[in-house]
Amino acid sequence: MMKEQLVVSSSPHIRSATTVRDIMWSVVVSLIPAVLAAVYFFGINAFLIVSVSIFGCLLTEFLFQKARGKEVTINDGSAVITGLLLALTLPPTASLWMVLVGSAVAIGLGKQVFGGLGYNPFNPALVGRAFLLAAYPVQMTNWMIDGVTTATPLNVIAESQYMTVEYWDLFIGNVAGSLGETSAFALLLGAAYLIYKGYISWRIPLGMLSSVFIVTYLFGGDPIFHLFAGGLMLGALYMATDMVTSPITKSGRWIFGFGAGIIVVIIRLWGGYPEGVLYSILLMNMTVPLLNRYTRPRSFGEGAK
What we know:
Number of strands: 2
Strand content: under 5%
Oligomer: single chain
Strand order of the largest sheet: 1-2
Radius of gyration: 20 Å
């Protein structure tokens, strides 16, 4: 008679065959449409920026892990994602040395100083962009389309309150802006693949996008314009959904998404800066420990407090 074996262990008790590496490389694949759109609209410089950003992130990760005597894990795809996302937040006129500095800050200060993948409280790519925006504001706000320097749609509407771009151009990305912030279509295409695979939570982007739409409409703005303009799609679909820096509970994800969307609208409509996606996600990253604590489902048998 076969004896039943009872194994006592700590959680998690349910495991998946999907590895972190599988998820990371799937995210890389999902960003290919956005990269191709960037190269199509901005030319070879977009490809160079993406390449240098990925190289800088991989090199920084390698050097930090070697210095700390840790296993080198640059092939798990996480540093490649940081490089890709950082590049997609940069203007097409960004200098390559500046891209290299930003990628070093993203991995060094945004990830490795906290212990590496899984320990960072903030999205590393946004940390890199925040540093570059503070250190090199002129270069980071130099936009170009068809070889001509121009303002982004958000800059135009912030200065004149008059929209000069068609919705279709906003949707496909035929406007000035950062490499990956322009084509909402390419970003939605990649995100649909990740949601289908179950690798990102649909609650965060839906909460963020819907709150931007509703609040903008309530205060007299153009909700469709604000939905497709700037870095909202890139931030909502790929940065706010970072599984390391976002809540683990369903209700926490809704709150995270709604909070980020409301901060975006506050900065865009009443702030001195035309874009607010960067700060909205970084600020909501700070709330994640509290959201995880106070939205945690009650365990079976746990009494009301």
